[in-house]
User: Fold these one by one.
Assistant:
Number 1:
Amino acid sequence: MNFVILDLEWNGTYSRRLKGFMNEIIEFGAVKVDDGLRVVDTFDALVRPQVGKKISGKIKTLTNITNEELADGLQFMQAMSRFRKWMGEAVLMTWGTSDILALIENSRYFCGSERIPFLRQYVDLQNYCEQMLHYDDTKQMGLSTSAQLLGINEADIAHHRAMDDSMLSLRCLRKLYKKETLLPFIQNAGTDAFYEKITFKTMIICDLSNPLIKRSDMMFHCESCGRRAFREGEWQLKNKSYRAGFFCRHCGSRFVGRVQFKLKYDGLVVKKCVLPCKEEDKSLPENTAELPARITRFKRAARPLL
Ligand SMILES: [Zn+2]
């Protein structure tokens, strides 16, 4: 079994046809490895932008790609076709799903296709590495963060160049790779369900009358004695989460209960946390206030109906 680690660079540009912004792919970089993660081959291609004729200054600085270099690049469909032949039957890997979303967006724009022809089996390397490192599951681990956590020397890596980022992803994978732990992460990417899941946009529910919310989601227990606490005052919506004061009749303690509802493809994720009253009074920004509190987070298994 071979694996291909793909990384893309893109330029955010306005499309008159779409009447909106799109991420136009300007570079493919990939490395092919065998199942011992030995490099078999590499692939590199610049793509000539057709929607945004020139790349933005930000992308130019970030990638060091110039408009002159891009002028000699392939057309998107040519790059896709070469990549497809080069990739063969390999399992595709990307760091996070945003490269796959960009491929879907560009395929739809340039050839009206909703499917990526070479995508049959897929691994989200970011997810694999997060799980292997037991990374905080409320956060996403960037490639650089992962490399730092794994003690990887990045001195020779040009960040935000497709080939170098795919090589860096490979170095991270090498530190954590065990064949038997990777196998469950290989997804069948040839199904409608795969595309539905990957294109699903997480929503935050800001309406307490939503039928997915259960009464028990809004209940809080006292941190000191474990008994059910009573709400004092109304729920308030702040920073896309609900908060209210609670009082424990048993031990007299007061706290603020906070709950947030995220609707993901797999179901509703309820994140609850208890904040000390004092912290709340200072109205700290969301992330700072989260630090001293214990967070409970659970996922409801059932697929919600929208
Ligand atoms: Zn109590």
Number 2:
Amino acid sequence: MPRPDEILYPRRPERTADRRKESMQGKLLDEFFDHPTLLAVSRLISHGYFESIDHPISTGKEGGVFRATKGEGFVAVKVYRIGNATFRRFPPHALEELRREVSIRNLRTLIPAWTRREHTILARLREAGVRVPAPLGYSRNVLVMEYIGDPGGAAPRLKDAVVDDLDALYEDLVAEIRRMWEPGGLVHGDLSPYNILHWGGRIVTIDVAQAVSREHPQARELLRRDVGHLAEFLTRRGRKVKAEEFFARVAPPSAEA
Ligand SMILES: Nc1ncnc2c1ncn2[C@@H]1O[C@H](COP(=O)(O)OP(=O)(O)O)[C@@H](O)[C@H]1O
Ligand SMILES: [Mg+2]
């Protein structure tokens, strides 16, 4: 098994020049890659999911997403930190569903279950034809998925993306959210310009672990909120969209209405 410091951020000539980055990475190494997480990473490496972790794409209190090298290409590796900050982010409606599988009080079982859930939901959305990163595998609190971007960098979040055609963006959002609902049978539940990437003129939805079934009593309410965030975003960018109109286009009227 490779040593941890060989797995993470292998030294490359261009890196040694950048001391500041090095020390930041040392700090990240301590914060994200505790021993059990390093073991999970090693397991994924020995099963051929990737060869090494290159650098962080995004980091936060609850975890980080890293670019990793696999052969000639890349994969994205999402690490959930085993900690209370991560737990606090999980919405109650999604925790309820996990309660059947694991003890949700125990972070050591909950967070791996959450990681697995993200993998399962990505697979389900992909099957429904929704553009999400392909799920490639997981171990404990580490998820491997398709990398969205190119060697020059990861795809920008919609929030940071330059979008020329806002009408086309609106149509794309409607089509994707609609597909999540039917045939996907899911509501994302945390949709915003932060959890959507923009790549090749199209959107790619990410961060799906909290998605709930269309049958959930709160599903419509969550969908309304998701759509509201995006209507606000479009309007701010100059494409006026009413949340009601957006909502009506993604969800058919409910049976009781
Ligand atoms: N598959 C991916 N390819 C490229 N970048 C990604 C990918 N998944 C996530 N990212 C980047 O990492 C950030 C955080 O990912 P996300 O899944 O939203 O995790 P969280 O919000 O829990 O930190 C995203 O905003 C995006 O910039
Ligand atoms: Mg996110």
